[in-house]
Amino acid sequence: MKKHLMALAAITAVGTAVLAYLFLTKQITPARASSQAHDVDRLFSVLFAIASFFLVLCLGGLVYSLIFFRRRKGDESDGPAMFGHAPLEVTWTLVPLAIVIVLAIIGAFVLQSVTAAPKEELDVRVSAFQFGWQFNYPNEGLQTNELRLPIGQPVRFTLTSRDVIHDFWVPEFRIKEDAVPGMETTLRITPDRLGDYWALCNELCGIGHAYMRAPVKVVTQEQYRSWIEGLKKEKGS
Predict the structure, then answer these.
(1) What is the pTM of this model?
(2) Contacts of 230 (CB under 8 A, 6+ apart)
(3) CA atoms of 68 and 139, how far apart (whole Å)
(4) Are residues 111 and 140 in the same domain?
(5) 36 and 142: one domain?
(6) 141 and 56, same structural domain?
(7) Is 57 exposed, middle or buried (0-12, 13-18, 19+ CB in 10 A)?
């Protein structure tokens, strides 16, 4: 039995390492474009590593048992009777419980980190409707259908909806938040990567749901101010 346990342990270790390597070295998620995205991806990596371990342990144990403990040809005898194994039952109860508690604590810290209110936030009010987005910059007195954000500037999005429930999501920012009729919700993002992205609706909201998107640009502080001034001139004319 010791030989079989050592073999299963080796299979589990190698399988977990291979899965973790493939996941951690391959970019299977969108590029990270906010400081919050780094925290979320680190947490996801921990969850994936733990899930990989149990996946390989369970499937590896199943396949190993089918190969080495299968009934041999001509063997008509019954297997040994099992009457329970208290230490094993306690182990497979307490170990998952401990893992869930630890992950809940880690998740709480990550949640606190990504929702913390920094100083000097840029205020952007987001109004969702079937099937589009409207962005208001109250400090500038401007309204636009395109979202532009200065890199490194913490942003507080205040979201609401004019009709049904929508969900504001920029995949590269990772964090998303519902836009709900009759109430305001808050989303905090600090963009940290220049580029062009899309704001999507991640809540099925009607026949045009798939086309409910808006361009998002993360630009330098100078480009952002130039854009704001240009909009003010257009508004004034």
Answers:
(1) 0.82
(2) none
(3) 71
(4) no
(5) no
(6) no
(7) middle
